[in-house]
Amino acid sequence: MTNMKRVSFLPPLLLPLFGLAFATFAAGDDQFIFSGFTQSSLALDGGAVVTQGGLLDMSNGTNNIKSHALYPTPLRFRNSSGGKVQSFSATIVFCIVGAYPGVSANGLAFFIAPSKNFSDAQLTQYFGILKPNNNDNLFVIEVDTFQNPDMQDINDNHIGIDINSVLSLQSHEAGFYEDSSGVFKNLTLNAQIELQLWVDYEEEETRINVTLAPLHMGKPSRPLLSAAYDLSAVLTDTAYIGFSSTAEIMNTRHYVLGWSFGMNGQAAPSIDISKLPKVPRLRQRAQSKLLAIILPIATAALIISVGTVVILMVRRRRRYSEVREDWEGEFGPHRFSYKDLFQATQGFKSKNLVGAGGFGEVYKGVLRLSKKEIAVKKMSHESRQGMKEFITEVVSIGKLRHRNLVQLLGYCRRKGELMLVYDYMSNGSLDKYIHYQEDDKPTLNWAQRFQVIKGIATGLLYLHEKWEKVVIHRDIKASNVLLDDEMNGRLGDFGLARLYDHGADPQSTHMVGTMGYLAPELVRTGKASPRTDVYAFGMFLLEVTCGQKPMKQDAEGNQVFLVDWVLEHWNNRLLSKTVDARLQGDYGVDEACLVLKIGLLCMHPFPGSRPSMREVTQYLDGETPLPELKTTQLSVDMQGLMQDNGFNTSVMSYPQLMSSFGAVSDLSGGR
Ligand SMILES: Nc1ncnc2c1ncn2[C@@H]1O[C@H](COP(=O)(O)OP(=O)(O)OP(=O)(O)O)[C@@H](O)[C@H]1O
Ligand SMILES: *[C@@H]1O[C@H](CO)[C@@H](O)[C@H](O)[C@H]1NC(C)=O
Ligand SMILES: *[C@@H]1O[C@H](CO)[C@@H](O)[C@H](O)[C@H]1NC(C)=O
Ligand SMILES: *[C@@H]1O[C@H](CO)[C@@H](O)[C@H](O)[C@H]1NC(C)=O
Ligand SMILES: *[C@@H]1O[C@H](CO)[C@@H](O)[C@H](O)[C@H]1NC(C)=O
Ligand SMILES: *[C@@H]1O[C@H](CO)[C@@H](O)[C@H](O)[C@H]1NC(C)=O
Ligand SMILES: [Mg+2]
């Protein structure tokens, strides 16, 4: 990027023609400027080169070599022979790049010399231009980065004015005087910093000023060096100007980026910084600067990410933490990891919540690996007491396989939480099909209801009799009957009540079940038996056939008990009137009445008078005819029971017993 200006002689249009023609740099209004040296025709020798980027590189790293770069033609410093040396000024942008920070080497010099012949100059020192003595007509501004005792250098970082001698006329620590404060600020020459140097000579004043500043700062008004010296006694009429340097052992680079010169009334043009070439090592500096910025950020980012990972891991550990006790070892295969359940239910998201009961919430989930659909029942359970017994039972129950039971797959424990994992029943629980708004069409016809009833009876029979030990369900009701894909009834939640029933003590009020389904002796003694299951099953039969809840409020706000109501209709020989009206008569009357009668029989107040589940299935299948029931007898029995227990039957009919004991049940935390 050469920019040659011959300002006063030629109109601008002709400038290009003369762009490279320097031959006649005559005395007069002359100036030139180089912003980079790409197209300059500098006379180079030694190791001096102009790089591709346009930098003048005064030292290419080779040892023992002196390098010069000269303006190609000599300049006329005097108007007339014997006259005074006229004023001149030079501006130089340079940059010294040391191979190793803090290691100094010889510097760079700007000179005015009588010839291009520097064969006498030393190879290794004195900037490749000075001789130790007998120099003639030589004016040198030294940019010295090496403390040379021969030169009586003040330090290894100074600027000096040398006239015909290696001993400086004047020198100063590199730096500048700040305009605002007048305070001296030193600069390090050998620090990959682009610096600007101004050399001014004034003819009248016969004064040499040398000023240094960082590139982006303007010229300070106070020069670094200011020496009164008449160069008329030094310079020849015509002389060469240029730079010199000795190549360095340290591979220190002396770059000149820009140069302007002016004389005879023309000041050196100021150098446009934006047009200057870039110093290659500066990129490294920029990189290291960048590194200085990036490194802390990267470190911080690393620390933050490591911290985050640790926190996440801790949270994850905590999130997926479980309670596991030694005795659980044997149940390993039935144990689910919380993480799997958490992922299956998408973190127990509320959109996966399928329902909530007395023990906890039920979430739908899909196991990640097997894609199997599961229902996770999540219960809060603080007490460890009875946990082992319960888990043992859960696991043993898990071994139960029956087409009318909801398969229990396993469990998982966390602090204060217990989760049971079941097969997911796509059609939900039966209660949703039989309790709905009056005017809705039934979603379950009689045939389906009968099939469900028979299925549940078979399932309960399996629990009571077909398994190696008797399993009492304890919580039979419509919401615990689930429907599989084929609308088969499957009994769920078996044995669960056991968890809340520590009732080895008959006096215990830890009675569990659901109001309306509780057999009277269960209310009295808190002791569950297969017969209390049969009682609840009876209630279930009435519920399904009549499509009504065990208890409801009548128009006057009195509680009406389904069993009372059915019994009353039976007494009045209107049993079929109790069948769910929403079936619109579309049912087998015999079947429906059979189911109702079995239901009432199952709800016999005396446990011994209730049929077993085996008998119930036989009645349902029609294998055994239902024993002839005396409705009045049943009523009398029921009433008798009331009296036995000191109840005033005229005020309180039997099932109300339930509600009065319901408080007890509620206290137990069960249903
Ligand atoms: N295995 C399952 N598959 C699909 N849905 C289920 C499953 N188990 C339970 N549900 C649904 O979750 C709901 C809540 O069940 P949950 O057992 O917690 O309460 P409940 O049966 O109403 O009362 P209880 O706590 O006395 O059993 C049920 O009504 C049912 O709709
Ligand atoms: C430096 O310059 C000299 C002379 O031109 C040359 O012989 C040498 O190979 C150069 N060294 C490098 C590293 O370019
Ligand atoms: C040198 O010559 C120029 C014109 O060529 C003139 O303007 C200037 O004054 C002269 N300087 C001296 C010192 O004679
Ligand atoms: C350079 O100067 C030296 C002595 O100072 C001389 O021997 C030599 O011939 C000169 N070289 C040229 C090219 O003039
Ligand atoms: C400036 O010079 C003084 C004295 O020579 C020195 O103590 C100081 O470290 C220098 N500062 C810099 C930035 O070079
Ligand atoms: C040199 O510096 C002195 C002091 O700042 C100033 O008075 C003088 O004009 C300067 N001379 C030149 C040629 O810049
Ligand atoms: Mg349930």
UniProtKB/TrEMBL annotation:
**Coiled coil stretches, renumbered:** none
Tell me the InterPro entries matching this sequence.
Answer: ConA-like_dom_sf, Kinase-like_dom_sf, L-type_Lectin-RKs, Legume_lectin_dom, Prot_kinase_dom, Protein_kinase_ATP_BS, Ser/Thr_kinase_AS
The EC number on file is 2.7.11.1
Offer a single GO CC term for the protein: plasma membrane
Which PROSITE patterns did the record assign? PROTEIN_KINASE_ATP, PROTEIN_KINASE_DOM, PROTEIN_KINASE_ST
Does the record bear Transmembrane helix in its keywords?
A: yes
What SUPFAM superfamilies does the record tag this protein with? Concanavalin A-like lectins/glucanases (SSF49899), Protein kinase-like (PK-like) (SSF56112)
Cellular localization per UniProt: Membrane
Q: Where is the signal peptide?
A: 1-28
Organism of origin is Triticum aestivum
| MF (Gene Ontology) | ATP binding; carbohydrate binding; transmembrane receptor protein serine/threonine kinase activity
Domain Protein kinase: from-to ranges: 348-620
Its family remark reads: In the N-terminal section; belongs to the leguminous lectin family. In the C-terminal section; belongs to the protein kinase superfamily. Ser/Thr protein kinase family.
Q: Which positions in this protein are listed as binding ATP?
A: 378
Q: What membrane topology term does the record carry?
A: Single-pass type I membrane protein
| Primary localisation category | membrane
Q: What is this protein called?
A: non-specific serine/threonine protein kinase
